[in-house]
Specification:
This protein is α/β, with parallel strands linked by helices. The protein has 14 helices and 13 strands.
Length: about 425
């Protein structure tokens, strides 16, 4: 998920169309969590005849990013009451903007915004990793979202451990310190190594704990699998490939298989735990360029998820492993001199989901109204394009702070469109 430059992050590949880019991006004892009340009527993947999914209503959502306090909490170390008040304000804002879903980041950096038995409390709550904030943010978010008729999608980052490369800065009981062989530095960050089977099992267990304990409406991942390429740096998993890569034609195929396993296994486990919980992924908008693969989109992007992130996003849709896909189409509507455009990608994704039963919602770059000087009408033009394709059944806006700030009245224009 693209983090905003005003918060000190470098724009990632969703805002770049060529070249190689840099990117941003002891657990306490578990406590009993009361059962949450029934959620709202779900928007997405209710099973239908022939494996098709029946859309209940158009999804209108926003992401609430917690990593580095991008959206919420506004700063680490606020009181529990102040944190809760800010969260409630975002939920109320969603209702006021005629949204019906909130995607809350609950595992930003191998940590947790609930009392997890696997990972420490997030430092973005108290400023100190592992410190109990004195309340249960995820439990509160689910309860209060459902009271307002909002879906609550829990957003997890599978492999990101830290936005630095110093393991000693992690709490002493952090799994990454207990298993230093699981971790690799790359691009100024620490990552769990996706090629290690024990890592894959652990991150699944850590995320699925929230599915078991809360009435979340969906498990949501963004675009971070293997990290985005960083010029001049190597993700040093040669030893892991030598140990586990037998039978694959090359490292790229092995890496894609590792990501496939994570997606497929997580999907299976979610349905075993709670069959009505959806599983959705929000990838970077370009699977492959047509020049690379005739099945690809009419684009000339510098990053392709299949080749650079080892994420076969099209394959997951076509195989029906996920309930919804929400590609980040963070590009202007028309191409002009751009290598990537919204108008080129929207029909490609519509064709990709056609006949699969996978819901298609589009990730919208509301933050670019301010950050890149987009016009006030850019997003309504996106909605006009999307309306041409019945496969597109929703939109999600990045991010909550921008929904609240309403740059150039862009979100107001979108909300008014929905009232018609």
């Amino acid at each position: 998920m693209r983090q905003m430059a005003r918060r000190g992050f470098v724009a990632g590949a969703a805002g770049v169309v060529a070249g190689v880019v840099s990117t941003i991006t002891t657990a306490g004892d578990a406590v009993a969590v009361p059962s949450q009340q029934a959620g709202p009527e779900r928007t997405g993947a209710a099973p239908g005849k022939g494996g098709q999914h029946v859309g209940r209503r158009e999804l209108r959502g926003m992401w609430v990013a917690t990593v580095a306090n991008v959206d919420w909490p506004s700063a680490p170390g606020l009181s529990a009451a102040a944190q809760e008040a800010e969260l409630i304000a975002y939920l109320d804002e969603a209702v006021a903007r005629r949204l019906n879903a909130v995607i809350l980041q609950v595992r930003p950096t191998a940590d947790a915004l609930w009392p997890s038995p696997y990972e420490p409390w997030s430092q973005y709550l108290t400023g100190v990793q592992g410190k109990d904030p004195g309340w249960d943010p995820l439990g509160t978010a689910v309860r209060e979202a459902h009271r307002r008729g909002l879906e609550l999608h829990a957003w997890f980052n599978p492999y990101r451990v830290a936005n630095h490369t110093d393991p000693s800065r992690l709490i002493a009981t952090h799994p990454a310190r207990l298993h230093p062989d699981w971790v690799l530095p790359y691009g100024g960050k620490l990552y769990y190594n996706p090629g290690i089977p024990e890592v894959r099992r652990f991150v699944q267990d850590a995320m699925l704990d929230a599915v078991r304990r809360y009435d979340i409406d969906a498990v949501h991942w963004d675009d971070y699998f293997y990290p985005y390429p960083v010029a001049g740096q190597v993700f040093d998993d040669d030893a892991t490939y030598a140990k586990y890569g037998a039978g694959f034609p090359d490292k790229a195929a092995w890496r894609r298989d590792n990501t496939d396993k994570l997606v497929r296994e997580t999907a299976e486990q979610i349905k075993k735990i709670k069959k009505n919980v959806q599983f959705g992924i929000s990838p970077f908008g370009v699977w492959r360029n047509a020049a690379t693969d005739p099945l690809g989109s009419d684009t000339k992007a510098g990053v392709q998820t299949y080749d650079d992130l080892y994420a076969d996003t099209r394959g997951w849709v076509r195989k029906g492993w996920i309930d919804y896909v929400c590609p980040q189409l963070y590009f202007k509507a028309q191409r002009s001199d751009q290598a990537v455009s919204y108008s080129a990608l929207a029909p490609w994704w519509a064709e990709t989901v056609r006949g699969t039963g996978v819901q298609l919602w589009i990730g919208e770059a509301l933050y670019k109204i301010n950050n890149e000087g987009w016009s006030a009408g850019e997003l309504t033009e996106h909605l006009d394009i999307a309306a041409k394709y019945p496969e597109i059944t929703g939109h999600v806006f990045f991010s909550a702070k921008d929904v609240q700030e309403d740059p150039k009245g862009a979100m107001t224009a979108v909300s008014e469109r929905w009232s018609q």
